[in-house]
Amino acid sequence: MSLLSHHLNNYKEFLNKNAPPFGVAHFFCLTLEMNCVKTIEMEFSAGDDMFKLRVNGKEHELDVAPDTPLLWVLRDHLQLTGTKYGCGIGQCGACTVHVDGKAMRACQMPIASVGKQSVTTIEGLQGAVAEAVFAAWVAEQVPQCGYCQPGQVMSASALLTQNPHPDDNAITAAMEGNLCRCGTYQRIRRAIQRVARQGKGV
Ligand code: FES
Ligand code: FES
């Protein structure tokens, strides 16, 4: 039985045995409410766990609830704020990171599901493909407001690493989950094609 149910059962028992006047019951309700808040806090902290997480080549120990989204761990616990929060429901791609090299939505990954996999964020993205992507983004002057761009770069670099010469369909398939409210899609496509022409993939 959870602590909260335990409190509620005690309350019911108390009312059955004592049939208190309304004022007393009201006071008891207020006390119960305060206890519930404390209890809920206790239950949340009781559910926390220690997780080891490898991010950008560095190991971290984190005391968080198992269902904490990776996005919050990155932004709030590790201060890696390059990974953006857009929709929080896996629909915009702003939170894209690499998990063992694959583009994943950090808002949809509970910390408990990461395990021993390696996480790379925009801050830790490096190597020949990443450098080519950064250069192409500059050459094609891709960003406008810039908010979606870390996620776009993470998706593009995952694609170009796995497939150095993606055709139009492959680019569409890899990038269609990354939304850009500024409409930079054509420049993103040109930047990816620029890297593909250079063949920087592995
Ligand atoms: S914030 Fe994760 S997909 Fe939108
Ligand atoms: S550059 Fe503004 S949202 Fe994409």
Fold and architecture overview:
The protein is α+β, with helices and mostly antiparallel strands and 202 residues long. The chain has three domains: 3-47; 49-122, Ubiquitin-like (UB roll) (Roll), CATH 3.10.20; 128-198, Orthogonal Bundle (DNA polymerase, domain 1). Helices cover 49% and strands 12% of the residues. The protein is built from seven helices and five strands. The protein has helices at 3-18, 22-47, 70-77, 128-139, 149-162, 168-175, 185-198; strands spanning 49-55, 58-64, 96-99, 102-105, 118-120. A five-stranded mixed beta sheet has the order 2-1-5-3-4, sandwiched between helices. α5 crosses α6 (168-175). The longest helix is centred in the first third of the chain and has 26 residues, at 22-47. Residues 1-8 and 22-46 have low confidence and may be disordered. One FE2/S2 (inorganic) cluster is lined by residues 85-88, 90-95, 105, 107.
Task: Explain briefly what this protein structure is.
With 202 residues, this protein is α+β, with helices and mostly antiparallel strands.
What would you say the CATH architecture of the largest domain is? Roll
Amount of helix: 40-55%
CATH top level assignment of the largest domain: Alpha Beta
Small-molecule binders: FE2/S2 (inorganic) cluster
**Annotated CATH topology of the largest domain:** Ubiquitin-like (UB roll)
CATH superfamily of the largest domain: Beta-grasp domain
Unreliable residue stretches: 1-8, 22-46
Distance between the termini: 54 Å
| CA-atom Rg in angstroms | 24 Å
The strand order across the widest sheet is: 2-1-5-3-4
Strand content: 5-15%
The sequence of SSEs as H and E is: HHEEHEEEHHHH
Number of contiguous helices: 7
Q: Whole-number average pLDDT?
A: 85
Number of domains: 3
